[in-house]
Amino acid sequence: MQGLMMDYQLTLRPILERAYKLFPKREIVTKVGPAMHRYTYADLYQRTGQLAHALEKLGVKAGDRVGTLAWNTYRHLELYFGIPCMGAVCHTLNLRLPPDQLIYIINHAADKVIFVDQTLLPLLEKIAAHLKTVEHFVVMTNTPLQTSLPNALSYEELLAAEPTEYNWPDLPENTAAAMCYTSGTTGDPKGVLYSHRSCYLHAMSVCFGDGLGLTSSDIMMPVVPMFHVLAWGLPYAATMLGAVQVFPGPHMTPRDLVELIQAEKITITGGVPTLWLGILNLLESERYDLSSLRSMVVGGSAAPQSLIEGFQKKHNVRVVHAWGMTETSPLGTVCNLKREMFDLPEEEQYHIRAKQGIPSPCVELRAVDEAGKEVQWDGKAMGELQVRGPWVASNYYNDDRSVGRFEGGWFRTGDVVTIDEEGYIQIVDRTKDLVKSGGEWISTVELESAIMGHPGVLEATVIAVPHPKWQERPLALVVPRPNAEPPSKESIYAHIAPHFAKWQLPNDILFVESIPKTSVGKFDKKVIREQYKDYALPERA
Q1: How much of the chain is in helix, strand and coil states, percent to nearest 5?
Q2: Is 12-252's fold the same as 435-541's?
Q3: Which residues lie closer than 8 Å to 356 by C-beta, 6 or more apart?
Q4: What is the C-alpha to C-alpha distance for residues 13 and 35, in angstroms, rounded to an integer?
Q5: Which sign does the torsion angle of CA 156, 158, 161, 165 carry?
């Protein structure tokens, strides 16, 4: 017997329409140079209708891929809805990828039209001759076009010529809505194709109290780029609730961000640890009012416990640790304390909050050892994290590398984790980043977190370096904190030694001015390993 409920399709259109009908006067704010652009959800809805008409005029049909090369702005939000709601696929392009990978992604997706911010024109102009399927380039600017791109059009002129009312199609919920590619740390990037249903359900999970806790009263600022996993679904969730959205545009320095938090009274934001570390360092010497900020979501890579403690103790800002991947839309786990943990000693609470958390509702996870056996939830046994759920990819887009990554209804993440008795996962490392020393594994993530707890350290990363006796040994790279007493090797060893066995400590610590980062702000260990592959490690006593 089946239930007698309506067959209501979960698509992005009702998210957009709800904001328009219930919160038409709520603001969407973008930093544009020194000025602020402000408009409302009513404006968003009407301009999105104009955009859909313009896409039709450009020959975009259902299922066509439409690329976006853009910062976090109101226009990018229009593309987030206008493209998928008219039946096409919004393909966000990572502006920090090298030219060869951008060429590969655009050609592999077969983008028909690309929308580009004016400041990013040089990126496209350099590779335009290699793009095989792009028929039009639309430049998002208010000024006259000045570009060598063929068939270039003005975004504002396109929209101005179209009516605001659009007859949105009734799309099946499993229609493709958006596409993102992985950052390509090993081989070519891989495409992940999201459906309307997955985006809708994922947006709901962001709004759960035990998710990221977004509400209609929030003023939300996504610092995570809109080209990176759909800005973690934050723009869709905020629109679903009619929350105020504030976009920083290309203004992403720590000072830019804290000034926006202070001026716009941001209540919730999200980004990678390196950004928040920069802000925490800035706040050591400059004062800003962050009292409006109730939640700072951190993800993309593991946040050191010192970061979580620093914001809480010094600035009364709650850092929420989360984990996810391009393949998981990305929200997979969120770290909120269970009620039973509220009375634990403060140090134990911080230790738990430094973990990546428990699975979001609708997401299932497990850790599997090299023999394919699920490991115990004891907080000690390590295994590869595998996940499944309604916003987890089932295959890569048109890519043979799906084989081996999607097995038995599970996605193999490549992350090595432990799961404790309460179900909290802790990322130990990526399978390719673990140090195997004398047959034993050493977690670079745990070493990095401990080193960054030193008061004189701004950033730290640890890699495996070949060793003639032990196969591999850890090497630490450290960026000293500006305006602080310079750390010494001895002080760092003394700081971390109580937390590790002697054989787990790095053989050497090198002080550097900066650490290479990936296109999404993670430490680029592929590059770092290549730089130090021939480094002669000293033996530690």
Answers
A1: 30, 25, 40
A2: no
A3: 302, 321, 322, 323, 333, 335, 417, 424, 425, 426, 427
A4: 31
A5: negative
Give, for all 541 residues of the chain, the pLDDT tens digit.
Answer: 999 999 999 999 999 999 999 999 999 999 998 899 999 999 999 999 999 999 999 999 999 999 999 999 999 999 999 999 999 999 999 998 889 999 999 999 999 999 999 999 999 999 999 999 999 999 999 888 999 999 999 999 999 999 999 999 999 999 999 999 997 555 789 999 999 999 999 999 999 999 999 999 999 999 999 999 999 999 999 999 999 999 999 999 999 999 999 999 999 999 988 889 899 999 999 999 999 999 999 998 888 899 999 999 999 999 999 999 999 999 999 999 999 999 999 999 999 999 999 999 999 999 999 899 999 999 999 999 999 999 999 999 999 999 989 999 999 998 989 999 999 999 887 777 878 787 677 888 889 989 999 999 999 999 989 887 788 899 999 999 988 888 999 999 999 998 887 888 999 999 999 999 887 778 888 889 889 988 888 887 5
Give the start-to-end residue ranges of the domains of the chain: 12-252, 435-541
Fold of 12-252: Rossmann fold (3.40.50)
Q: From the candidates 147, 164, 309, 441, which is the catalytic residue?
A: 441
Out of 327, 446, 448, 472, the active site residue is 327
Q: Hey, which bits of 160-243 come out as E strands? A: 176-181, 191-195, 219-222
* 470 given a catalytic annotation: no
Q: Cis omega (within 30 of 0) on the bond before 330?
A: yes
Q: Read off the tokens for 131.
A: 């793009």
Which one from 436, 440, 503, 530 is the annotated catalytic residue? Answer: 436
CA atoms of 525 and 237, how far apart (whole Å): 32
Of the options 3.40.50.1220, 3.40.50.720, 2.120.10.30, 3.30.300.30, the CATH number for the domain spanning 435-541? 3.30.300.30
What the block records as the tokens of 402 is 């799906």
* Tokens 């891929």 -> residue: 65
Per the residue annotation, which of 30, 182, 333, 444 is the catalytic one? 182
The closest of 272, 385, 383, 388 to 329, measured between CA atoms, is 388
Residue with token string 């593991």: 302
Q: Is 441 a catalytic residue?
A: yes
3-class DSSP state of 449: helix
Active site residue 112: no
Note if 182 is an active site residue. yes
For residues 41, 73, 216, 82, the Cα torsion angle rounded to the nearest 10 degrees is: 50
Length of the chain: 541
Taking Cα atoms as reference points, which of 290, 287, 358, 80 lies closest to residue 203? 80
DSSP state of 9: -
